[in-house]
Write a structure and sequence with these properties.
Length: about 375
């Protein structure tokens, strides 16, 4: 596959659709029409709002064009306002700020962006329950909820320790990662989405079904968050137990890649159900490419290329009728409110991150 020419096509499409986002003054969420749609809930506090500036930074690196930097910074300003509002922020400040303010600091050395990223890391620290986990969401009955997605957000804490020299952030990240290792990783290499703990004692209370098909099933995006999250935990710490977890999750994920290279929404969904989530496939592809570099195991590279080639062959929309590229993304198995079989911004983000890795140009914004 000629990944360099796919990148050129993506740069051309986003150069046009970034103008539309700026004209409308929004942070894109869904791009299946001639204009972008903003996030479905909670405005610019929605957990996906970092992916647009992250995508713009990736394109800036790939193209060398400052146009994308300017657009990344337009979105960054909106996200910085959310730090002050604070109302809806939760553990996903990792997704939101590593890819926006964190990327700006990493790529330009901008000091204000560094401060904002540390602010986000401090908010994340405030969600730590010393009983052993980072609280996920804000609901009144969710004090004991932890979710697998949080493994991705831990990178913000590891980054903060590296940047300040203060080990507290990394210490908290390791405690949460070890809890996830013990409580989320199943013997077959799949992971649970939500585990509820007693917020006072830290004892496990229940597993909840979350965004997958049913309780005990394998929501594919959750599998991908676990896969990339443990890979990043290893990259941040060099602790082999995290690498072993990532490899176990990888083996299960690879066994479920469809023959056409696309990804089902849940690996346990009924055989006659057609419900894809290419978001999951792109997140997994990024992680598998990192695992290939870390272990030298070519099977990871082969699997990642199957996923990327699958969406290039079947699920890319290059037309001017839409703003985004990757199709057939599904936010949640049973709730179509945030999108089913459509373009969703973090699908495009991870697609471009994977292409950047495949061409040796990824700035690795998660570290
Ligand atoms: N972090 C939420 C999701 O993957 O939908």
């Amino acid at each position: 596959m000629d990944y360099a020419s796919i990148i050129e096509k993506a740069i051309a499409k986003f150069r046009r659709s970034a103008v539309i986002a700026a004209e409308d003054g929004l942070i894109p969420y869904q791009g299946n029409a001639a204009r972008w749609t903003g996030s479905p809930w909670e405005g610019n506090s929605w957990w996906t709002c970092g992916f647009w500036p992250g995508l713009m930074w990736q394109l800036h690196v790939l193209s060398g064009d400052d146009f994308f930097k300017t657009e990344a910074r337009r979105a960054e300003k909106l996200l910085v306002q959310e730090l002050n509002t604070f109302r809806y922020l939760h553990h996903d400040v990792g997704f939101m700020y590593l890819l926006s303010t964190g990327a700006d600091w990493k790529l330009t050395g901008d000091e204000a962006s560094k401060t904002h990223t540390l602010h986000a890391a401090s908010i994340m620290m405030g969600r730590f329950n010393p009983a052993g986990f980072i609280r996920a969401w804000n609901g009144a009955d969710q004090a004991g909820y932890a979710i697998i997605d949080c493994m991705m957000n831990l990178s913000l804490l590891f980054w903060a320790s590296r940047t300040t020299g203060d080990p507290r952030f990394a210490h908290v990240a390791r405690i949460h990662a070890d809890t996830a290792l013990r409580e989320f990783l199943r013997p077959d290499g799949s992971v649970s989405h939500i585990i509820e703990f007693d917020p006072v004692t830290g004892q496990r209370v229940a597993e909840h079904a979350g965004q997958g098909y049913c309780l005990g099933s394998q929501w594919s995006r959750g599998q991908a968050w676990g896969l990339y999250g443990f890979t990043l935990a290893y990259m941040n710490t060099q602790e082999l137990r995290y690498l072993a977890a990532a490899e176990k999750i990888a083996a299960n994920f690879i066994a479920h890649i469809r023959p056409d290279g696309l990804t089902d929404c849940d690996f346990c969904q009924p055989a006659d159900e057609v419900r894809l989530d290419n978001l999951a496939g792109m997140i997994a592809a990024c992680s598998l490419l990192e695992l290939h570099k870390l272990t030298g195991n070519a099977a990871y590279d082969v699997a990642a290329r199957r996923l990327v080639d699958g969406v290039i062959e079947h699920c890319c929309d290059w037309s001017e009728a839409s703003c985004g590229i990757l199709t057939h993304c599904t936010a949640s198995y049973h709730d179509d409110g945030a999108g089913r079989h459509t373009n969703i911004i973090y699908g495009d983000y991870f697609f471009i991150e994977a292409l950047a890795k495949l061409t040796g140009k990824d700035p690795m914004l998660w570290l």
